Amino acid sequence: xxxxxxxxxxxxxxxxxxxxxxxxxxxxxxxxxxxxxxxxxxxxxxxxxxxxxxxxxxxxxxxxxxxxxxxxxxxxxxxxxxxxxxxxxxxxxxxxxxxxxxxxxxxxxxxxxxxxxxxxxxxxxxxxxxxxxxxxxxxxxxxxxxxxxxxxxxxxxxxxxxxxxxxxxxxxxxxxxxxxxxxxxxxxxxxxxxxxxxxxx
Length: 201
Fold this sequence. Notes:
- The protein has helices spanning 87-109, 116-147, 153-194, and strands spanning 9-11, 17-20, 33-37, 43-48, 50-52, 55-60, 66-71, 77-82.
- The termini are far apart.
- The chain is built from three helices and eight strands, in the order ββββββββααα.
- Helix 1 (87-109) runs antiparallel to helix 2 (116-147) and helix 2 runs antiparallel to helix 3.
- By secondary structure, it is of the alpha+beta class.
- It folds into two domains: 9-82, Immunoglobulins (Immunoglobulin-like); 87-194.
- The strands form two sheets. It has a five-stranded mixed beta sheet, with no helix packed on it. A three-stranded antiparallel beta sheet has the order 2-6-5, with no helix packed on it.
C-alpha cells in the first residue's frame, strides 16, 4: 500500500506517512537526523533521514493525536495529528446493521409471491444478500476498531478471516439448497398437476 506524504494536518488513519525534504544535501540523507517533539517539548521520535531520490524522507509512525514539531538540520515543520471522525462510518454501520436485520427477518414474515417455487428462490437469494451485507458490516466494524486504536487489530483480523470463511461456506450451501429445493418443489408441483391437485388451469 502506498504511504502518503505527511500534511500539516493528518488523520490517524493516514499514518504512517512520509516527511519529505525539499532538497538533498551534498553529504547525503543519512547524516541528518530528524527529531519529533510533542507539546511538552519532549523528543518522542528520532530517526535519520533515508534516501528518496531526488530528496530525503522519514517515515512518521506516531498515531497519538496532538501537535508535533519536527526539527533537523535538513528540514523542519509542524504536524497536527487529528483523530479520524468515525461518525460517518458509524452511521453507515448502523444503517447496514438495520438493513441486515430486516433481510434476515423478511423471508420469515412475508411471502414474496404466490408461486411456491419462485417464492423459495427469492427467499434464499434474500438470505444470501443478507450474508453479503453481514460481510460489509464485519469489515466496517473491524476498520472502526482499528482506527480507534484499540490494540486488538490482529485478533480482529483473525476473527474476520475465520468468520468470512464460514460465511462463504454458508452462502455456497445456500446456492446448493436453491438448486436442490427448486428441483424438489418443481417435481412436486408437476406431480400435483398430473394428479389434478392444483388450482392452475
